[in-house]
Known about the structure:
Residues 105-166 form the J domain. The chain is of the alpha+beta class and 753 residues long. Helices cover 48% and strands 11% of the residues. It contains 25 helices and eleven strands. The chain has helices at residues 13-34, 53-65, 69-95, 106-110, 118-132, 140-154, 156-165, 190-218, 226-238, 244-252, 271-281, 297-310, 320-350, 360-375, 408-412, 416-422, 428-440, 488-495, 506-512, 530-549, 554-574, 580-600, 602-622, 714-717, 732-739; strands at residues 4-9, 174-181, 442-451, 461-462, 466-477, 644-650, 655-656, 661-663, 669-677, 683-693, 701-710. The strands form three sheets. Strands 4, 6, 7, 8, 10 and 11 form a six-stranded mixed β-sheet that branches. It is elongated. The termini are far apart. Mean pLDDT is 76; it is low at 485-561, 574-581, 717-740 and 749-753.
Amino acid sequence: MGGQKFQYDESGGTFFYFLLSFLALILIPATYYYWPRKPKPDPEGEGKECRCVGCVKKQQLLKSADPWRGPKHFFIKFLLVGGWVLLALLAYKVSQFDYEMANFDPYEILRISPGSSQTEIRKAYRKLSIILHPDKGGDEAEFMKLSKAYQALTDEDARKNWEKYGNPDGPGAMSFGIALPSWIVEKENSVWVLGLYALVFMVALPLVVGTWWYRSIRFSGDQVLLDTTQMYYYFFHKTPNMMLKRVIMILSASLEFDRKHNSEIIERQSDNEEVPQLIRKLPNLNEKNKERPLCFGYSIKARAIIHAHLSRIPLNPPTLEQDRRYVIAKCPYLIQEQVNCVNQLILLAYARRIQRLPSIETIENCMKLCPMIVQGLWEFKSPLLQLPYINEDNLKYFISKKRQIKSLQQFAQLKGEERRTILRCLTNEEYDDVMKVLGAMPYVDFQVKCEVIDDENPTEVTAGAIVTVTVALIRHNMSTLFGDETVAEAQAITENGIEGDTKEGDGDNEQHEPAIKRPAWLKQKKGGGKKSNKKTSKQNKMVNNVKQKSEGSPAVVKTKVKEDKAKIKEEESEDSDGSDIDTAEINDRSSEEEVKSSSVEDDDQEWEKFQQKLHKREKVLEGRSKISHAVHCPLFPIDKQEYWWTYICDRKSRTLLTAPYHLTGLVDREECQLKFTAPNWPGVYTFTVCLRSDSYIGFDQQKDIKLDVKEAPAEITEHPQWEFEDSEEEGPAEDEARESEYTTDEDLPEDDD
């Protein structure tokens, strides 16, 4: 039996296979992820770019901020193209390798059929040897193969070896090839090879892993310093009810603006003169606060820059303007971290791990600050200043005896002539830019649906049940409001803003949501005559009786519905002058038909819900998109996308019921589910579903939902697995504290704000 033989690649053939596979594993994913791509042109965005001074200056600064973008893209393309060229050359080189004994077939070499006689074999050998003999101009390698094939068919031992082992010489040594060139293990090169191994595995690899680990333990998942997050927790726990300017102070104290924690921060000698001069221009900066780190120099400088940005005070371009661009670009990520910290503190307070509960005003002040930073505008300023070319002097044209234009939605609903009259001080090009920006702003249809999922009666809320509120957001451009006609839903948005002057009633909710089926306990009772009340009560009783007695297959129900319809038509034709009792009976029968037909469609509705759940799960697995719509923000140093927050709160008790959900991919339509636990005591409760923009001022909305909480069934409230060990130790004081967590409509007046 042949032995085993290990050998390095002397000719370099197998090493080319190794290089080919290794290069392909690198090039394919690298080309997919790193090939420079141009942004896809937006067909809707063509010709909609704003040409105001702020936007033009911002685009120029963005281009100048990355001067090496073009050469960097060229270098990446050059490397990738060179890699693919090298891959093609290696593939061609490998295809040229020829192994003589890879497929040794003596009959094929002699060009005869299997089973030929010895005479035919000799004849074929003589004929081919004359052609392939080296002395007569033939190929020596081919002649050697011909001689070996002739020997394999004429020599009895060689023929047996070929038939048994596939080789005329018998079994050879088992060869294991290593796809590395032999010079690697040569003695002369051992020092260089060992040095390369030490450089890669003992220096470069530990350095890369250590750098990555050092950064990962300093930053959170949103690339915010963990020390900054701890500072947020401390101050929000220390001050549960935090005002807006206090939130700005905490934001400016973030360690991202400190040179000791962030090497990108630039400290100049000129700051000692420019920062005090800027502070003198800013009222109520509270720079004499002695709290640490609010009194540190970097914190006061960042606070002054944020106040100057909100007041739209121009800064020195070579120094403080560069700092403003860096500080303001960091603020949205830090504000989102503030919202998360306040939400975590509220959850800890509910779990009784901390004593102080942050108020709903604190987290809402954090959310208010984000659009202020993006637009460079204080909250008490007019939202109309978000439009290009509009300044404080132009605002006087929006207010007159005939009209009081205070919001962007009101301005969009005006007729074209009235809008042009108001902006008569602008040129046609400037007016076109204003209308482009206004038309691209969001107009969101805010729809809310409340139910108890996985319950027998999803419209009935019992004490302690898990209530699911489905928030549907349908985004349109503000240009849909242009024209002479007024859109009803636009009135709902302008009237129901959180910052608005008027408060929307429950009846308005029903008018602006015709497509949503509201639960019975959310519908308001409308006044009517005595006869109509008697009829409706009689119909409700009839519907309940039909629900209890309705049985049978769907086919039988359909046939009964058709028969009842035919009978009703005949009775209506015969007794056209019937009394009120006859009409009531007809209404009762129609209600029976609706109940029966609804039972037929139950299976289809359940299947649709199941498909919707699968679709939502697939969407979650795909990941959350960060692309929605571009925001017009000339004072914000980088490009910004529209994001939104939605949450549920109780305005009466000033508590947050659900964590704020951050919507980052609202392009056309987006849905999310907010879940909370219903109160433990029966009653009628009013909660508020809020929608807040992180990019525009004056686009916030809110809608009230009423929960008629019923008493839970006895078998659930008395079930032993719902009893906790701590329930026996709770005293009457804790019961009163939890009872005041939610407030019914009967406990407090209707208008408490």
